[in-house]
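Quick illustration, no need to memorize.
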Amino acid sequence: MTLNGKKIGFGITASFCTLPDIIEPMELLAAAGADIYPVVSSEVYNNSSRFHDRDEFLATIRQIAGREAIATIAEAEAFGPKNPMDIMIIAPATGNTIGKIAHGVWDTPVVMAAKATLRNGAPVLIALFTNDALGISGVNIMQLYNTKNVYFVPFGQDDPIKKPTSMTADLGQLEASILQALEGKQIQPALLQKR
């Protein structure tokens, strides 16, 4: 299986320090022939941070995908029957976003796109980036890990000494994770042994 011609929703949430890191993986997906539909949270759409300039970031993802980012719940809902995706990726996925999906709260463009994709029986792939993965978000992560059609990019602790509850996904495994999820499989190992 290849990604050529696959319709990929690419949800981007407000782990601002991670936003620059998703550009290269998105470029690689586009180079592999994927048809990318970027979806951004309101925070990403409306704010700059010390890690990124909002206008430059949105222009970059528009250039990569060849289309504007979806930034409203109404636009994202079209990922249901009107414009189904082969897969929905959320990278970075914050603890807040993971919690919303785990508890059926569909109040942002990214989680609505995930809901619409799941409704169609297609996979949702989560690349988590959260400071509380081994804290309060842990229960939500494990709930989603055991949810049909939800898969994870392999993840592990990024700084066990300074941030003992923080975990991040290995974006270098994004494409391989997509290919496995499209076949209905969780890439293994899902938990990284060493970083």
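The longest strand covers residues 87-93.
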